[in-house]
């Protein structure tokens, strides 16, 4: 989605309030009665429309996602439409009863304004409630995931370390201590990556334009990629959390290094970007499994690198897909990415 479209979403509620204000003010401006009488009739709808504008300005300037504001806009629009239809139905009933005086414009606009403001406030409440529910569900899923890791993934290297420690005591052979050290290193990596998985599952707030070229090269410099070459073929800037997107690239580069290959390519797509390598690739039947924590085909892999990547993408509301690169390796593509 383009930056213009995101801005339009963020200010949609303010635009709705501005439209209501323009309609109410036009009736006041062109009214044929005395100025004071017109002011009394249209003061309430004008005030309500200004409250809707104020709500929209708050939503546009606060740290809310564009999707959250769009939801509030739909609630506000629905409230205004429902109340407008109600006013129209009352007018129809008056007409059926033989009354000539239908609902005046000021009453209709007041009804629509009440509906728009009330719907917007309900939308804010509903959005926050749903976000809180999603956060609680995410926390529950993380607890289940961590329980699985502790009961299975950490237990395996612990058993290996205990077994070799007993053998070392019995035989005195120092090679068993190397196996114990390797098992401890693996446990340390598991703990570090589980903590990273937890942190990167949070929502993102510090969004700013980030150059893919610069951030990819920064991430490459911190990952051990022996005899591998990085090729960045784009200078696109995307709206993201700089710290999170750097972690995303680090995990993708580390995953490429673990599975072999000589070249990693970073390039842009129509609505996002991708990272591809020339390694063995990922079989089609495993392309969904690779995002599950603990799944790995590398002997020394922890299986959490791509799970962290998925969490970071979800925190940004990006869609992620695994496919095949031009050289037959793995290609991880991100879409729905806002850019400049």
TrEMBL record:
Keywords: Kinase, Membrane, Phosphoprotein, Transferase, Transmembrane, Transmembrane helix, Two-component regulatory system. It is an enzyme of class 2 (transferase). Its EC number is 2.7.13.3. It comes from the Archaea. Residues 149-335 form the Histidine kinase domain. CDD domains: HATPase, HisKA. Pfam families: HATPase_c, HisKA, HisKA_4TM. It catalyses: ATP + protein L-histidine = ADP + protein N-phospho-L-histidine. Gene3D superfamilies: 1.10.287.130, Histidine kinase-like ATPase, C-terminal domain. The chain crosses the membrane at residues 12-30, 42-60, 72-93, 105-125. One of its GO terms (molecular function) is phosphorelay sensor kinase activity. InterPro entries: HATPase_C_sf (IPR036890), HATPase_dom (IPR003594), His_kinase_dom (IPR005467), HisK_dim/P_dom (IPR003661), HisK_dim/P_sf (IPR036097), HisKA_4TM (IPR031623), Sensor_HK_Regulatory (IPR050736), Sig_transdc_His_kin-like_C (IPR004358). SUPFAM superfamilies: ATPase domain of HSP90 chaperone/DNA topoisomerase II/histidine kinase, Homodimeric domain of signal transducing histidine kinase. This is histidine kinase. It comes from Halorussus limi.
């Amino acid at each position: 989605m383009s930056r213009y479209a995101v801005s339009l979403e963020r200010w949609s509620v303010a635009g709705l309030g501005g439209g209501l204000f323009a309609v109410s003010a036009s009736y006041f401006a062109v009214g044929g009665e005395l100025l004071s009488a017109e002011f009394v009739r249209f003061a309430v709808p004008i005030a309500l429309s200004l409250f809707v504008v104020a709500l929209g300005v708050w939503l546009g300037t606060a740290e809310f996602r564009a999707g959250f504001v769009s939801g509030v806009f739909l609630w506000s629009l629905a409230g205004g439409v429902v109340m407008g239809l109600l006013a129209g139905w009352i007018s129809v009933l008056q007409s059926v009863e033989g009354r000539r005086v239908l609902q005046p414009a000021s009453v209709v606009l007041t009804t629509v304004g009440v509906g728009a403001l009330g719907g917007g406030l309900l939308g804010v409440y509903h959005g926050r409630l749903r976000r809180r529910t999603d956060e609680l569900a995410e926390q529950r899923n993380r607890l289940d995931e961590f329980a699985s890791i502790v009961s299975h993934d950490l237990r395996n290297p612990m058993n290996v370390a205990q077994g070799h420690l007993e053998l070392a005591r019995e035989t005195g052979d120092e090679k068993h201590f190397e196996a114990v050290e390797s098992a401890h290193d693996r446990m340390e990596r598991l703990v570090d990556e589980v903590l990273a998985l937890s942190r990167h599952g949070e929502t993102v707030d510090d969004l700013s334009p980030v150059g893919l070229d610069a951030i990819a090269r920064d991430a490459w410099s911190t990952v051990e990629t022996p005899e591998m070459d990085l090729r960045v073929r784009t200078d696109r800037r995307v709206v993201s959390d700089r710290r999170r997107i750097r972690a995303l690239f680090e995990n993708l580069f580390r995953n490429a290094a673990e599975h072999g290959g000589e070249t990693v390519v970073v390039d842009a797509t129509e609505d996002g970007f991708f990272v591809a390598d020339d390694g063995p690739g990922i079989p089609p039947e495993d392309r969904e499994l690779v995002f599950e924590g603990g799944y790995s085909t590398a002997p020394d892999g922890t299986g959490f690198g791509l799970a962290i990547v998925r969490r970071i993408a979800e925190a940004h509301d990006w869609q992620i897909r695994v496919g095949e690169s031009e050289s037959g390796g793995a290609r991880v593509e991100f879409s729905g990415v806002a850019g400049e």
